[in-house]
Amino acid sequence: MTSVPFNWKLLEKAELNQSFDLETALNHLKFNADGLIPAIAQQYDTHEVVMMAWMNLDAIKETLKTQRVCYWSRSRQAYWRKGESSGQIQHLKELRIDCDGDTLLLLVDQIGPACHTGRRSCFYAVADQDELRVNSEPLISPEALYGK
């Protein structure tokens, strides 16, 4: 590991396989005013983007520790582990940080649908020139997914 004080500019000139202290890097992430950072979840083997959510530092550390993705729910103001009520869990395969430390990419193994609508991906609304088109059907009804 490098003994140079960490900043994101170091990554621009880093050599292949050069490593940095993870705790230091995490402490230099660029969180928003609410202490959150966007996290994009992508299926690790197909590269399908399945969802975007928010994480804070504790959610990131919990995810790295357990290898089960944990997010911060802005609406509930609480931690939530993907799949805790639906059973459609995300296993972390790899956590990547973008070049300036303000966005996370989570390579995950998504079990079942990622979207609360029961669809595989939250990104099912496609904008064409003059319309917004739905490109997938739910795999599971939200009622069956959440028991409501």
Q: What features would you highlight for this structure?
A:
alpha+beta, 4 helices, 148 residues, two-stranded antiparallel ribbon, 4-stranded mixed sheet
**N-to-C SSE string, H for helix and E for strand:** HHEEHEEEEEEH
What's the arrangement of strands in the largest beta sheet? 2-1-6-5
Helix count from the secondary structure assignment: 4
For the report, how would you describe the main beta sheet?
4 strands, mixed
- Stretches where pLDDT falls below 50 for ≥5 residues? none
Number of strands: 8
What amount of the residues lies in strands?
25-35%
Q: Layout of SSEs?
A:
Layout: H1 9-12, H2 22-27, E1 37-43, E2 49-55, H3 57-66, E3 70-73, E4 78-81, E5 90-97, E6 104-110, E7 125-127, E8 132-134, H4 142-146
Parallel strand pairs: 1-6
Antiparallel strand pairs: 1-2, 3-4, 5-6, 7-8
What can you see in these coordinates?
- A hairpin with a 6-residue loop joins strand 5 (90-97) and strand 6.
- The chain is an alpha+beta fold.
- The mean pLDDT is 91.
- The chain is built from four helices and eight strands; from the N terminus they run ααββαββββββα.
- The chain is globular.
- It has a four-stranded mixed β-sheet with strand order 2-1-6-5, covered by helices on one side. It has a two-stranded antiparallel sheet with strand order 3-4. It has a two-stranded antiparallel sheet with strand order 7-8.
